[in-house]
Amino acid sequence: MNPSQAQPPEELPNARLVQRSRWHFGVIWIVPLLAILVGIGLAVQAVRARGPEVTLQFVAAEGLEANKTRVKFKDVAIGTVTSIALSEDRKSVRVVVQMDRQAEELLVADSQFWVVRPRVAAGTISGLATLLSGAYIAIDPGKSGQKQLDFIGLEVPPLVTSNTPGRQYVLTADELGSLDIGTPVYFRRIPVGRVVGYAMRQDGSGVDVRVFVDSPYDAFVTKASRFWHASGMDVSLNADGVKFDMQSLLSLALGGVAFSSPNDEDDRPAPRAEAEALFTLHADQAAASRKPETRVEKYVLLFNESVRGLTVGAPVDFRGLVAGEVSRIDLNFDKKKADFYMQVELSMYPDRFAPPTSNNGGGVKGEPIREEIIDRMVARGFRAQLRTGNLLTGQRYVALDFFNNAKPARVDWSRRRPELPVQPGTLDSMQDQLLTVVETLRTTLQHVDQLIVKVDREVAPELTNTLRDARKTLDSADRMLGSADKLMVNDAPLQLEMRDALREVGKAATAVRNLADLLERQPEALLKGKKGEDN
User: Fold this and answer.
1) For 182-194, what is each residue's pLDDT tens digit?
2) Helices 493-521 & 460-487 angle (0-180, nearest 10)
3) Fold annotation for 435-528
4) How far is the C-alpha of 367 from the C-alpha of 286, rounded, in Å?
5) In the chain, domain spans
């Protein structure tokens, strides 16, 4: 193309200056902005959901880790451990927990914290889930209205939490026995609860055992309920034979507590016991089944014989009725006689002799009336005596009864514990009688020996001469009978009778001869009898 023929260039339009806004941003900034807003929202939500900080004190921090270990209630996380440090005295560890706001109402004065980890105790296994998830801190919220942020953690998980239905009761006992935390409680041989705690009384006179009975079995605990030790095996030997009783194999290993709820005196169901009610924990079922005694009177017995086999708690028997028990046995010294004697203290139950509900118009009331009645009984031979109750075990008891041959005695009512007169025991009386018999036999034998000596010295010589003369006479008669027998050769009746008579005379002569020979060899045979052939 020819350049001369080129068209002139078009004129460009005039440029205009457009001023843009300084705050204009692109779409790309929307994402960071939204992230910031979400972060701010989450931060605000976290601040609003954040609760107070709680300080827990444990003996050791086994299984706990900062910023990892959680605090749970009903398996819901309500807090996190933020720090773990030693206490100032270095005897424990301080665990700081950041609680959620939803747990703020749970932080009251009687709330409890403990570490959940695998445990084997009281025949049960707990906390197995923590083998995979790790240990955590559990809380049992209390019912107090006082807020609190510092707590002392439990080293052992409580067996009963505040949301467990049931009731707690307190049992008083002289000793704990084989009971421990978690020991089962039985009703009609069914486990219905457990021992949740025990403590010694401040004066050291016994222990208080706290038991928890689950619902609905707590409805069977009434004001008339009786509790007793059901630990191990109960073997007894009595007039009915051998009795064996055991609640379960678990009670054999861990011990146990059992209870029954009898009706009241009118055979009506007793009212239900309130929570924290106080009961007595008896040693066994037999002791729990006894009627509680409202009156107890103390008496003293003084024995000059051995009380071996008599123990504290042995029964005091009156004609088959248990009227009391032995409460104490002491050894005392009598300075005047320079001898020892056994002092046995009795706890007597007078209401068992004449209960207030009996048909005789009531029991014996008033000290003068009681003393007058006992004095009259003692005058009639009322005494206390030791007797053997079991020949196999040698156990003894105190028997009260009337004795016709009892020596006169009186009761000194001026003493703080009156002394009742005693009667020698049956065993001692038998020994005295045997000694009397032995002495009598010894005296008799001495007289017999003297008589035998006298017979040998005085009677035997004269008897020997007499027997010699009798032997000569018998020999003559024997010869005469022989001659007469030869003469009787006919069979006449008179001759036959004569022959028979002579034969009888011959037999008698032979017997007398034998007797004479015997007395000649053994003169004492007249008193002692004939000796054996070997003599």
Assistant:
1) 888 999 988 999 9
2) 160
3) Helix Hairpins (1.10.287)
4) 31
5) 37-152, 166-289, 297-424, 435-528
